[in-house]
Amino acid sequence: MSFYSLIIKPILFLFPAETAHRMIIKMLKLTSKIPLIGSIIRSCNNVSSPSLEREVFGIKFKNPVGVAAGLDKNGECFNELSDFGFSFVEIGSVTPEFQLGNPKPRIFRLPKDKAIINRMGIPCNGVRSVANNIKNVRHRTIVAGSLSKNSETSNENAIKDFERVFEMLYDFVDFFVLNISCPNVKDLDKLQDTDTLENIVNRLMSLRLFYDDNKPLLLKISPDLEKEQLDRIIELVMKSGLDGVVVSNTTRERISSLNTSPNELAQIGQGGLSGRPLFEKSLNLVRYVYEKTQGQVPIVASGGIMTPQNAKEMLDSGASLVEVYTGFIYEGPSFCKRILKYLKKCSQHQSVQSATKS
Ligand SMILES: Cc1cc2nc3c(=O)[nH]c(=O)nc-3n(C[C@H](O)[C@H](O)[C@H](O)COP(=O)(O)O)c2cc1C
Question: What domains are defined for the chain?
């Protein structure tokens, strides 16, 4: 058992999930101020190998593992998170104006399932504040900006919100993810179902033509899409020239095999489920999108990656990169390193096998 599982996690889990989250962010920001700490953490978690490197949508990643959106909502600690071995951090989701999100409590741990239910509703300090945070530091990692709209903005006017966040972050991030799949903002996921999505995508794609560099734009989808709706989105992705798909966000479904009792679930109420129970659903979706796009559209897998083997399975099923959130909370700071060591070992094993065969 690791020091994290034995000591740190039990202490953190004594606090409400959101308080623990704030404590982690504060701790990361604080430690970054202590000279040499960052480099020590970085060197302890460094696993490098040419077999881990990837070039995806024109960006070179030192390895395929990143941090999913929601952990660093305001771009406050992406460098510090990357010190744990991650090759990229998706910050946000970012909204144009400050918003509080839904009333607390709004994050719930399901330890029996190694899962989380959240209904954060995208709290954010607003794009101006996020842009200030990320432009004033030297980036040690690839940064993705997750784009969203303010909850009060109607879907008809959403395009202006997305445009604003896109433009204000353009010079400070490496790629973008359009988040229209959060289940905790009223009607946001309805954007997946309408022509509005096509308008938003087309608008952002044409806006970026005004810039000298072409920053990749990806779309994050929900695991709860009906097949017909999903097929339409895949068609849009292929047609519009979007650079990739993040598969997937949290699910509204309360998967039947949960160990958490129906009573506890009823007490928690609504929200998106992440972590172990989401894995099969996300994996199947990765396979489906890969097959439908004939491997032509890069996939970033997110959803229930709780073990190094889960990450490998996603990559073997067509994902070019993977992202973790809940796994990091349950498995701790060495999680990325464990994944990378496993992937490296698998590729060495494969090389030996193919050398023996030939
Ligand atoms: C507390 C919490 C907040 C999240 N906030 C966001 C968000 O702001 N934007 C977004 O696109 N996804 C958000 N997510 C979804 C994650 O990015 C990820 O896609 C999802 O949790 C599935 O991955 P996981 O099982 O590794 O956690 C959030 C997830 C959690 C648990």
Answer: 3-349 (3.20.20.70)
Ligand 1 pocket test: pick from 249, 270, 329 the residue with the most ligand atoms within 8 Å of its Cβ.
249
Burial class from Cβ neighbours inside 10 Å (0-12, 13-18, 19+) for residue 265 reads middle
The whole-angstrom distance between residue 349's C-alpha and the CA centroid of its chain comes to 29
d(CA 66, CA 196): 29
pTM: 0.97
Give the pLDDT of the chain (358 residues) as one tens digit per residue. Answer: 789 999 999 999 999 999 999 999 999 999 888 989 999 999 999 999 999 999 999 999 999 999 999 999 999 999 999 999 999 999 999 999 999 999 999 999 999 999 999 999 999 999 999 999 999 899 999 999 999 999 999 999 999 999 999 999 999 999 999 999 888 888 888 887 778 899 999 999 999 999 999 999 999 999 999 999 999 999 999 999 999 999 999 999 998 889 999 999 999 999 999 999 999 999 999 999 999 999 999 999 999 999 999 999 999 999 999 999 999 999 999 999 999 999 999 999 888 888 887 7
- Structure tokens of 186? 């009223």
Ligand 1 centroid to residue 118 C-alpha, Å = 8
The finding on whether 91 has its CB within 6 A of some atom of ligand 1 is: no
| CA 189 to ligand 1 center in whole angstroms | 14
Instruction: Tell me if residue 177 falls in helix, strand or coil.
Output: strand
Closest CA to 300 of 218, 216, 191: 218
247 C-alpha to ligand 1 centroid (Å):
11
Residue of 89, 220, 274 best suited for mutating to test ligand 1, as the one with most atoms within 8 Å of CB:
274
User: Cα(129)–Cα(133) distance, rounded to whole angstroms?
Assistant: 6
- Say how far apart CA 230 and CA 234 lie, in whole Å: 6
Give 274's DSSP letter.
E
**Three-class SS state of 299:** strand
Separation of alpha carbons 117 and 270, rounded Å: 8
